[in-house]
Design goal:
By secondary structure, the chain is of the alpha/beta class. It has 31 helices and ten strands. Among the domains are: 167 residues, Alpha-Beta Complex (Spore Coat Polysaccharide Biosynthesis Protein SpsA, Chain A), CATH 3.90.550; 188 residues, Serine Threonine Protein Phosphatase 5, Tetratricopeptide repeat; 69 residues. An eight-stranded mixed sheet has the order 3-2-1-4-7-6-10-5, with helices on both faces. A two-stranded antiparallel ribbon has the order 8-9. α1 links the parallel β1 and β2.
């Protein structure tokens, strides 16, 4: 005789799209094993009723009363399967094959309960999440029921327990959802405490809710209350509270008390191995905030790592000790932060053995390690014991692109250029932007002797721009001009990459180098910058894109360069009015270079004013000389007037008054016989 193996019960709210996604993920189970689906409809929404009725005829209307157990028990009481499974409408199974195989193979007869993972996303991108095992499946007995009005759980939950590796997607821990749930849940839990005898479970749930609401003092209060209750059957829930107690205190800013309470909790009889691991991380975090605790940081970091190793040798313990998010993945997500803290502390007290210990804890050579390159890079840039860290990295023996680029730097410092370049070539295989950033630093430091050629084919132009910007921002201003020379010389065969760096370095010089060069240099560097920007555009854009009518489609820096060309053209033509007009327009095009334009404005304005002033003074001087010439002519002192009028004619070739004076002088000179006419010569 074939039995109904599984009843799946679902609480349905108003989330129509989510409900459909959840139900679709259950269809493979309903199609391949003897099973039934029961919907407890809390929505009162006809659209929800129509939707769920497409999947099952077992739809039970339920008037919501702020009691989750009552709602779930409504579905459970109608269940006819050998097993019972509860699922929420805002989650959906990624893959149901394991559950299907569990029942189809008859394996389910060997177990009384089962659990699967809930992937709780902490942001809408779906990148960051925490896995938690949820106790949602049990063999159905007359005693099976849900208890607690909120944060309900199914009981009895007996072993042996089947642990599925499949997971359900769940976005219920995204910030804005958590906020709304917390506002609802805390009053319900507080009310339950007033109406019923306090339980460890209630205190635990209040701790979690207050933690989600960032109310750490309240969370601490209920954690202590939880530990004070005499409920020997709830040791596991107490282990959660004692594990988080130091964190609640630390997040209130009381680091010394964090150490005191953390050490007490490590000695607590209900402290599990997982609890201890979390406590170690908070003890480390507190020590970082205190002075002269480097040795303690190292000790707690090593204890954490050794605890991980012990649990990994007994993987079933990860499952049996896990509760409410205090589980394997969450603890292991903290490990590299622990190792980084241990490494920093080791560097601060120059503890080589400990530094080497923490370095070997990282997964060198794996894709995962790339997530920590930036932290390593930052540590090397800022740490006062940089040489100590460089030696530790270089001596680690790990085959990894980041280690290789570090070894390249050490080899360069030891004048082993060939070895440095070999390490550089290996590092380029990573195509990693952080490693590339260090390669660029070495390229500039070595003035091109450590080549960037291996990186040209593996890094796209956006990565070149990003690293060029980062390099320019970190460089000393007075070094940027030399860096530009290095780039032009050693990247000449790669004009796009070279111009990318030249433009970026020159841009920072123009933006911030007010004290680095004089007025003439400013104009020269601006002309260079604009020329490079337009050269770059000619290389990467089609001719059609460079047409004037398409200028608005081009990047701002290109529009700026074209506008500045108009300024320089007006300067050459001494078109003073146009110069200022074009320059004022340039200010609004490219904000990063506003400071350079503002510096150019008064310089150009002064030149224009000086030119106009010189012109007025010259005109005044010309008038004075012309008066002298007229006086000399009236006094018939023609020979003295002649050289003056000759000189002034050169300076004022279009002055009409001077033209008349010249003619008058010539007439008198002729009458006096000083000038001869061509007729006389004839």
């Amino acid at each position: 005789m074939q039995y109904l193996q599984l009843t799946i019960s679902l609480l349905a709210s108003n989330k129509i799209s989510a409900i459909r996604r959840c139900l679709d993920s259950l269809v493979p189970i309903l199609m391949r094993i003897p099973s039934e689906l029961i919907i407890v409809d809390t929505s009162g929404n006809p659209q929800v009723r129509n939707l769920v009725s497409q999947y099952t005829s077992h739809v039970i209307p339920f008037q919501w009363c702020n009691d989750f157990s009552k709602a779930r028990n409504t579905g459970l009481q109608r269940a006819k399967g050998e097993w019972f499974m509860s699922i929420d409408d805002d989650e959906w199974l990624e893959d149901a094959d394991e559950i299907i195989d569990f029942f189809a193979s008859g394996e389910y007869r060997n177990y009384n309960s089962a659990t699967y993972r809930q992937r709780n996303y902490t942001e809408w991108s779906g990148i960051n999440y925490i896995h938690a095992y949820v106790a949602r499946m049990v063999r159905l007995t007359p005693d099976t029921k849900f208890i607690n009005t909120i944060h309900e759980y199914i009981t009895p939950y007996k072993g042996p327990v089947k642990r599925f590796s499949i997971y359900a997607h769940h976005y219920g821990y995204v910030d804005n959802i958590v906020d709304s749930k917390t506002g609802r849940n805390i009053p319900l839990l507080e009310n339950e405490l007033r109406e019923h005898k306090p339980t460890v479970h209630n205190y635990l749930q209040l701790c979690q809710e207050y933690m989600s609401a960032f109310k750490y003092a309240e969370a601490e209060k209920y954690a202590f209350k939880c530990l004070e209750l005499d409920e020997p059957d709830n040791e596991k829930e107490k282990s959660w509270c004692l594990a988080y107690l130091p964190q609640f205190i630390r997040l209130q800013g009381d680091y010394q008390r964090t150490l005191e309470v953390g050490k007490q909790m490590l000695r607590h009889p209900f402290c599990t191995e997982i609890s201890a691991l979390l406590i170690y991380t908070d003890l480390m975090a507190a020590c970082i905030k205190l002075v002269d605790h480097e040795k303690d940081i190292i000790i707690y970091g090593k204890n954490y790592h050794l605890g991980l190793e012990r649990l990994d040798k007994r993987p079933e313990e990860w499952f049996f000790q896990s509760i409410g998010g205090l589980e394997e993945q969450q603890i292991k997500n903290l490990r590299y932060k622990v190792y980084l803290s241990g490494l920093k502390a080791s560097a601060q007290i120059l503890d080589q053995k400990s530094a080497d210990f923490f370095l070997q804890c990282f997964p060198w050579g794996s894709n995962e390690i790339e997530n920590f390159y930036q932290s390593f890079y930052t540590m090397l840039q800022k740490n006062e014991n940089r040489s100590f860290l460089l030696d530790r990295f270089a001596g680690s023996g790990a085959e990894d692109p980041f280690i290789s680029i570090i070894k390249a730097g050490v080899a360069w410092e030891n004048n082993a250029i060939v070895s440095a370049q070999e390490y550089n070539i290996f590092a380029a295989r990573s195509k990693n932007i952080i490693v590339f950033q260090e390669a660029v630093r070495l390229f500039l430091l070595s003035q091109g002797k450590i080549s960037l050629d291996p990186w040209v084919d593996v890094m796209d132009i956006q990565q070149w721009k990003e690293v060029s910007k980062s390099t320019a921002d970190k460089a000393e201003l007075h070094n940027l001009a030399d860096h530009i020379v290095t780039v032009k010389k050693h990247l000449a065969k790669f004009p796009v990459q070279a111009l990318t760096m030249q433009i970026t370095f020159q841009e920072r010089l123009l933006a911030e180098g007010i004290l680095e060069f004089d007025d003439q240099d400013l104009f020269q560097k601006m002309e260079q910058y604009c020329s490079w920007v337009q050269d770059y555009a000619a290389l990467v854009y089609s001719k059609d894109m460079l047409l004037p009518e398409n200028l608005h489609l081009m990047p701002q820096e290109h529009q700026f360069a074209v506008q500045m060309d108009r300024v320089f053209c007006a300067l050459q033509n001494f078109d003073h009015a146009k110069i200022l007009k074009e320059l004022h327009q340039a200010i609004n095009i490219y904000p990063p270079l506003c400071s350079a334009i503002r510096r150019m404005l008064p310089i150009i304005t002064e030149k224009i004013e000086r030119a106009e002033q010189d012109d007025q003074e010259f005109k005044m001087l010309g008038s004075q000389v012309k008066k002298m010439i007229r006086d000399l002519i009236q006094e018939r002192r023609y020979p003295e007037a002649q050289p003056l009028i000759q000189q002034l004619s050169t300076l004022l070739p279009k002055d009409l008054e001077l033209v008349r004076l010249r003619q008058e002088l010539w007439t008198h000179l002729t009458d006096q016989g000083i000038l001869r006419t061509s007729r006389e010569d004839g």
